[in-house]
Amino acid sequence: MGTQKMATYIAVRGLLLLCLLVFIIPAKALKCHSCLGTLKECKLKEVTCPGRNDTCGSSLMMVKSFPIKDDTVTKGCFSSKIPHRSISLSPSAIVKLTLEEKTCDTDLCNNETIQVSEAKENDLNCYSCISSGKDCNSETMSNLKCRGKQDKCLDIWVLGNLSKH
């Protein structure tokens, strides 16, 4: 066999081996804990992430509106890594909405329980008014102390009826 033919033969074998590795032998898929439920009732199960889901994640959404406290935990496979994210919104002194999210990229890394701690008051004060059918004015506005990382006041208007009918 000539030198040219030998080089071609080695190149073709190398290409076939590369195709075998890339297309036939599957890549190791990420495994994550998965659940959807409340903090108390979320039962973890192990799942293998499909397709391009290359990140495990956990999120906790909490709604507090005295006397109600509701939470939802979501764990599973995510399609992109996001840094630890924490969002907190307090439209009144008795209503608080919180979202905590964390991601990681190793097998079964999302096993921790996300906690939301009560943050201390900070130096920001915002005005708050939740009104049904009345205008928000200086008489109906209340001063609301912001807590923890809350660093912005937000103005939200909802027009229309929020009832089911």
Plain-language structure description:
The structure is a single chain. The chain is mainly beta and 165 residues long. Among the domains are: 31-117, CD59, CATH 2.10.60; 121-148, no CATH class. Helices cover 13% and strands 39% of the residues. The chain has one helix at residues 3-24; strands at 31-37, 45-48, 55-65, 68-78, 85-92, 95-104, 121-128, 142-147. Strands 2-1-4-3-6-5 form a six-stranded antiparallel β-sheet, with no helix packed on it.
In short:
This protein is mainly beta and 165 residues long. It is built from 1 helix and 8 strands, in the order αββββββββ. The strands form 2 sheets. A 6-stranded antiparallel sheet has the order 2-1-4-3-6-5, with no helix packed on it. Strands 7-8 form a two-stranded antiparallel sheet.
Report the radius of gyration as a whole number of Å. Answer: 26 Å
H and E string: HEEEEEEEE
Distance between the termini: 85 Å
Segments where pLDDT lies below 50 for 5+ residues? 17-22
Q: Give the second-level CATH assignment, the architecture of the domain at 31-117.
A: Ribbon
- Per the principal axes of the C-alpha atoms, what is the gross shape? elongated
Strand residue content: 35-45%
Q: Residue-averaged pLDDT, rounded? A: 79
What name is given to the CATH topology of the domain at 31-117? CD59
User: CATH top level of the domain at 31-117?
Assistant: Mainly Beta
Strand order within the widest beta sheet: 2-1-4-3-6-5
Helix/strand/pairing category:
mainly beta
Q: Could you describe the largest sheet, including whether it forms a barrel?
A: 6 strands, antiparallel
Helix content: 10-25%
The CATH superfamily of the domain at 31-117 is CD59
- Kindly state the number of beta strands: 8
Q: What is the count of DSSP helices, taking H or I runs of 4+ residues?
A: 1
